[in-house]
Design goal:
The complex is a heterodimer of chains A (about 400) and B (about 230). With about 400 residues, chain A is α+β, with helices and mostly antiparallel strands. Chain A has 13 helices and twelve strands. Chain B is α/β, with parallel strands linked by helices. The chains are: A alpha+beta (about 400), B alpha/beta (about 230). The interface between A and B is medium-sized, with 23 and 25 residues.
């Protein structure tokens, strides 16, 4: 029998009992829809995480005090002296920019309005390393560092909160730790509403931070140091150079472990991708179970169908159908059933993914679900395979019926 | 008419036995049957219920295999054939007409008649050949009808069209008129006899109806799985 004819008969048979066919494939539909929607959301989340990390730049290196791997007894802070040493091109040729950072949680206020947020004490160059752009005004200069100027660059969300707007606010005076600071710039909004939103941060000169906000900090001490490698290829070299410089600066002998730790974006990226990888396996497991249940549903109905059509099978055999013909007839029917289930599932899953994206957008979360071709292909192949696998037993039952027995069946 | 012994019979059954097993119990349905049927003959098989008529027809139709004995169909030793070869024999050499018509309910008369051709390698001009077969049974104006839109007699005509579409050498009809009133039954028998006359198709009919057996050249009487009498009816 020609394949085209086999498929036509399968479609006709599915069509002749639509309600039953639909209920049969419901399990597959739900399973595939869940896979598509969850994978889309997962990939969207991954894209958003990696996007955020990459927007900061992959040649960014973090230097933190202390070392989590060892219980360093002589926990030594990082200092401005470390920062200056790292900036020495002779000692660390692959480091382009060095940005020491002091952070403090403090109130930023204007009039009666105030917001507790993270205040950054930084030097010029930080805005380059962190990829910060300004929508208004300018970042502070070396001269303003030297003069410990009371100037501040505000995040737009912070400005909105305390001043009520973020445009045309250059020259206004806000208070940090009860000291007045003149607004000289506003950063470009990065959008989003997540925890630790950079749009709510404030940036002031490092020297002003030491003098007026975090006076208790022992002299020269910084929270961490940001480094920017010359380019992405030299990140590893820059890390090695930084480690060497810091070990020398901290006078560590060969047997002493690092009393600082250096990480870079790559590490965060690989952590993020391993987390999403685990998530994907988890989702695939759930999807597998629901497809399994769907497949059993198909097998069940196909067995019923074989019993119902026993005398039809007998007739076909009497008219010359071989085992293979009967086998193909039932296999194509179950494969077609679950393929239709798969396609419906993909469409519904796509709809769900769009819905997730819509809800995320409404709540200001930066998550765009991605329905990938790989997911669609996988769902299609997998659901067809499920149909073939679970259709095999009923089909071979049908194919192995004895013609006489089948014809006698009422 | 005495069988023409000069040519090989199209059906040659020697000492055919069939025993059914129901658990421990053995049910002998055929206990040594000998029949030779020549090409173009019309044979009626009669006998009381349970005498083994259908069992014999299933053997002749290659739908079931005998427990013992020899069956040669058109020169082929049937017991030597594999499942797929048996399917091919059924497809090419035999046309079945059943008491209950056995049409596919979901599809039209035309598609029902096309069905045997789907299982044949010779499947060109299917629609034309199916149409011709339906014309031969006088149903050219009912081709698009589904079985439930046809009378019993018409449905049996569709079944006959389906039986002849692959131009088999033999038509096996097991109580083809059993579900029909006498008028429709007579028309079906006339149709089958006409096919025998015009095409020379060998015809074997199981029947309880003396009128039908009267129309046949030979009548074989079965009882308890044995042939108890054979005779010409005319
Ligand atoms: N599949 C089977 N299993 C067990 N016994 C069977 C089977 N088929 C037929 N028989 C037995 O074989 C015998 C012959 O049956 P068969 O169907 O050939 O009779 P028949 O002559 O066609 O009867 P009827 O005129 O009622 O159709 C019966 O005793 C029947 O019970
Ligand atoms: Mg019978």
């Amino acid at each position: 029998m020609k394949l085209l004819q086999v498929l036509r008969e399968a479609i006709r048979s599915i069509n002749s009992n639509r309600t039953r066919s639909f209920l049969t494939i419901l399990g597959i539909i739900i399973g595939v829809a869940a896979v598509i929607a969850l994978m889309a959301a997962g990939q969207g989340a991954q894209a958003s995480i990696t996007g955020q990390i990459q927007s900061i730049g992959t040649n960014l290196i973090y230097v933190m005090p202390g070392n989590q791997l060892t219980t360093a007894t002589n926990r030594r802070p990082l200092t401005l002296a470390d920062s200056r040493a790292l900036a020495n091109k002779l000692r660390a040729p692959h480091i382009r920019n060095v940005a020491p950072v002091i952070t403090d949680n403090n109130d930023v206020s204007y009039g009666k309005e105030s917001l507790q947020t993270t205040v950054y004490g930084v030097e010029p160059g930080f805005e380059i390393v962190q990829n910060l752009s300004l929508s208004d005004g300018a970042f502070f200069t070396r001269a303003e560092i030297d003069s410990r100027a009371s100037v501040v660059v505000l995040g737009p969300a912070l400005a909105d909160h305390i001043i009520g707007k973020h445009e045309g606010i250059i020259g206004m005076v806000v208070r940090i730790n009860d000291y007045p600071f003149r607004v000289i710039g506003v950063t470009t909004s990065k959008g989003g509403s997540q925890f630790n939103n950079p749009d709510t941060f404030a940036y002031i000169p490092l020297t002003s931070m030491q003098a007026r906000v975090k006076q208790d900090l022992s002299s020269g001490r910084v929270n961490y140091i940001l480094l920017q490698a010359e380019d992405e290829e030299s990140v590893k070299l820059a890390i090695d150079e930084a480690a060497l410089v810091l070990r020398e600066n901290h006078r560590l002998n060969l047997r002493q472990p690092d009393d600082f730790s250096i990480t870079n974006q790559e590490d965060f990226l690989s952590i993020a991708s391993s987390i999403t990888g685990v998530l994907t396996i988890f989702l695939a497991g759930i999807a597998g179970i629901s497809l399994l249940v769907g497949g059993i549903g198909i097998m069940n109905i196909m067995l019923v169908s074989v019993t119902e059509r026993t005398s039809e099978i007998g007739l076909r055999k009497a008219l010359g159908a071989r085992k293979l013909d009967i086998m193909l007839q039932f296999l194509s029917e179950s494969a077609m059933l679950s393929l239709i289930g798969g396609i419906l599932g993909i469409l519904i899953g796509w709809g769900l993914a769009s819905l997730i994206g819509f809800v995320a957008a409404q709540s200001g979360t930066d998550l765009i679900p991605v329905v990938g071709w790989d997911a669609i292909l996988l769902a299609t192949l997998f659901s067809t395979a499920v149909g073939l696998f679970f259709g095999w037993y009923p089909a071979s039952r049908a194919a192995n019926l004895q013609p006489v027995e089948a014809l006698r069946y009422e | 008419m005495i069988p023409n012994t000069k040519t090989d019979p199209v059906i040659d059954v020697r000492d055919l036995k069939k025993v059914y097993h129901i658990g421990e119990i053995e049910v002998p349905a055929l206990r040594g049957v000998n029949i030779q049927v020549q090409r173009g003959e019309v044979v009626a098989i009669m006998g009381p219920s349970g005498s083994g008529k259908s069992t014999l027809m299933n053997m002749i139709g290659c739908l079931d295999s005998p427990s013992d004995g020899v069956y040669i169909l058109d020169g082929l030793q049937v017991s030597d054939l594999r499942d797929d070869e048996l399917a091919e024999v059924r497809n090419k050499k035999i046309g079945f007409v059943f008491q209950k018509y056995n049409l596919l309910p979901r599809v039209s008369a035309l598609e029902n008649v096309e069905l045997p051709m789907h299982y044949s390698d010779e499947n060109s001009h299917m629609q034309q050949r199916a149409t011709d077969a339906l014309k031969a049974v006088g149903l050219e104006d009912r081709m698009r009808h589904k079985p439930n839109e046809l009378s019993g007699g018409q449905q049996q005509r569709v079944a006959i069209a389906r039986a002849i579409v692959n131009e088999p050498a033999i038509i096996l009809a097991d109580e083809p008129t059993g579900n029909l009133d006498s008028q429709a039954g007579k028309e079906i028998i006339d149709l089958l006899l006409g096919l025998n006359r015009e095409r020379g198709t060998t015809l074997i009919i199981v029947t309880h109806d003396p009128d039908v057996s009267a129309a046949a050249q030979r009548v074989i009487h079965l009882r308890d799985g044995l042939i108890v009498g054979e005779g010409e009816s005319r």
